Amino acid sequence: MKNILKYKPLTKSAFISVIFFAVCLVLASFIPQQSEWKAPESAKNIKNPIPANAASIAAGKAIYIKECLECHGKKGLGNGPNSATLDKSPESFNTLKVKNQTDGELFWKIKEGRKPMPSTKKSLTDEQRWQVLNYIRTFSK
Ligand code: HEC
Predict the structure, then answer these.
(1) Which of 109, 105, 104 is nearest to 119 (CA)?
(2) Alpha carbon 45 to its chain's center
(3) Reduced to 3 states, what is the DSSP secondary structure of residue 98?
(4) pLDDT at 31
(5) How far from chain centre, in Å, is Cα 71?
(6) I need a surface site. Which of 39, 85, 91, 138 has the fewest CB within 10 A?
(7) Nearest 5°: phi and psi at 117?
(8) Ligand 1 in reach of 20 Cβ (< 6 A)
(9) Could you tell me the fold of the domain covering 41-140?
């Protein structure tokens, strides 16, 4: 009984370790989650109903200039005038990572957005999202 009640103080170095660990935990919670952005399986097979013809690409270009160029850049390289101010700058559309995604996956990403990229749920219609997708596909051709 006597032994249990006896208070054994932490050594100084153990105490410092505990404080250090606690501070690390707090700091870690501020690191933003930057795992790879993956569209859900169900998005893969959504078919693009808008043919990639001159008219839809032109319409997509106009949307792109207005809504996307500031971050993604004139040629889709991810170096738009606003890109340097973002926590995370966009990657080039001309990468295998983007090329290997289906229209459905990219459509889903354009619709949902992911910080700092805004969602287009309110700003664009489905048709406009397909048009802008048809336009950004021209960067990797
Ligand atoms: C405020 C800056 C910003 C704007 C505006 C913006 N984006 Fe993005 N976009 C990003 C960033 C940053 C990423 C990377 C996000 C990530 O990986 O977490 C991204 C990612 C993407 C991706 C996914 C690429 C991949 O690697 O899978 C697509 C597609 C895309 N954007 C299209 C668009 C389109 C189309 C528009 C206009 C309608 C647009 N974006 C507007 C910043 C922006």
Answers:
(1) 109
(2) 21
(3) helix
(4) 62
(5) 12
(6) 85
(7) -75, 130
(8) no
(9) Cytochrome Bc1 Complex; Chain D, domain 2 (1.10.760)
Listed as ranges, residues in the chain with pLDDT below 50 are none
Alpha-carbon distance of 45 to 62, in angstroms, equals: 27
Q: From the CA of 48, how far away is ligand 1's center (Å)?
A: 19
Ligand 1 and 112: CB distance under 6 A? no
Ligand 1 in reach of 132 Cβ (< 6 A)? yes
Condensed to tens digits (0 to 9), the pLDDT of residues 57-98 reads 999 999 999 999 999 999 999 999 999 999 998 999 999 999
The pTM assigned to this predicted structure is 0.82
Query: Widest CA span of the chain, in angstroms?
Result: 88
How far apart, in whole angstroms, are the C-alpha atoms of residue 103 and residue 45? 8
